[in-house]
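Quick question about two entries, pasted in order.
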Amino acid sequence: QVQLVESGGNWVQAGGSLRLSCAASGSIRSINDMDWYRQAPGKQRELVAWITRSGHADYADSVKGRFTISREDAKKTVYLQVDDLKPEDTADYYCHAAIVTDDGTYADYWGQGTQVTVSS
C-alpha cells in the first residue's frame, strides 16, 4: 500500500537544471533514509545521493557540488536538485526509501523512475 512516485525528469541541454521530486503515500508511520539512484542505458544502477532522517546528506563523487538532496517530511517527499547537468547524467532516476508502515513493518520501497536526458 506504500507507493513512491517520482516526477520532474525531462530533456535538457548540458549546463541546465532540473528538480526531481519523489512523494511517498500510503500507510506510513515513519520514513528513515531516502535516496536517489540512477541507471544509465547498459549500466548498473548507482547510488547518487542519500539523506538520513536527521537530514544528513551525502553524494557520489560524480555529482558532488552539482546535485542537492533535500526532504520535506510533512509532505513525505524527497527532492533532488540537479544543476550543471552533463550528458553523462543521462539516466533513469529512481527514488528509494526505508519506510516503517503503520503495522510496524520495516521495508524498502522504490519508485518507478523518472527519465533525465541531457544533450550536449
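Here is the second entry:
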Amino acid sequence: QVQLVESGGGLVQAGGSLSLSCVASGSIFGINARSWYRQAPGKQRELVAAITSGGRTNYAESVKGRFTISRDTAKNTVYLQMNSLEPEDTAVYYCNIKAIGWPQTIDYWGQGTQVTVSS
C-alpha cells in the first residue's frame, strides 16, 4: 500500500519561509515525476512545482524564484522550500507522484498540509 505523508505546513508571516516534506512509503515503480500542488479555498488545484525522474524541474510562474523543489530518492522524500511567502500562497499543499501505469499514468496523492501566510 503506497502512502504519501506531508509535513511542514503551518502559519507564517508574509516574507517568511516554510519547508515542506513528503515521504513516500510502499513500492512505487516507474516514477516519472514528483510534484507539489496546492488548492486555495474556492479555487482549483494547481501545480506548484515538479521534478522529473531525471532531475529536471519546473515551477508555476507565481512561485519562480521563491520556491525550490528537491528530492532525496534514497529517503523517498520530496521537499519544497518556500521563501518570501505571500498571502496568496495560502492553500493546502499536496504531494503527488506520477508513475507509469497502463493504460494511463498512476497518480498518488498525500493528504495535504495547510500553509497559511498572514499579511
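Reply: The longest strand covers residues 31-39. The chain has a mean pLDDT of 95. Hope that helps.
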